[in-house]
Amino acid sequence: MPTEIEQSEIDKQMNAIIAQNEGYAEVEPSLEEQQKYLSRYSFSALVCSAVYFWYMKDKVFFWASVLSSVLFFPILFILPFMARQRAWKTHEWRSFSHFQSVQKKWDRASVYVFIISIFAIFLVSYYEVRLISSLLNTNGINDINDAKQLQQDLEQTLGS
């Protein structure tokens, strides 16, 4: 049976191998650098809020993000201020470097999700405007005067 000193050496070697395989540094930042990093705003917690909090095993913020998206939308912009600190406390991490590596992956993924979402919103809006304009044009509405005439006709029809 290995002694505590031998076990700590084995753990260090295992952590070094894992860090090398997963692509993060095994050198730990200072406590001041850690606090500075933990106090930063988490863009990934804003963009992917419920999924992010679920992955970080923060059930309180998960439900807060779900309820605030339905009941009080501005809360979604406040939660990411505390997201990194809560993720560091609520999830099991091998080291702070491992935590930073995972957070960088989440940040990168959130940028991709944000860009894809903007593109999808633009695409849907574009085709919706085209659909509405084609519907209006098939009904003979080509300018504002035609629209006013249609409104007057509808008011007369519904009024009688």
Word description of this protein:
This protein is mainly alpha-helical and 160 residues long. It is 78% helix and 0% strand. The protein has helices spanning 4-22, 31-38, 43-47, 49-55, 59-70, 75-78, 80-90, 96-138, 144-159. The chain is elongated and about 90 Å long. The N and C termini lie far apart (95 Å). The mean pLDDT is 79.
Keywords:
160 residues, mainly alpha, 9 helices
Helix-residue proportion: over 70%
What letter string, H or E per element, gives the SSE order? HHHHHHHHH
* Annotation field: number of helices: 9
What is the arithmetic mean of pLDDT?
A: 79
Radius of gyration of CA atoms, rounded to a whole number: 27 Å
How many strand segments? 0
SSE arrangement:
Blueprint: H1 4-22, H2 31-38, H3 43-47, H4 49-55, H5 59-70, H6 75-78, H7 80-90, H8 96-138, H9 144-159
Helix pairs in contact: 4-5
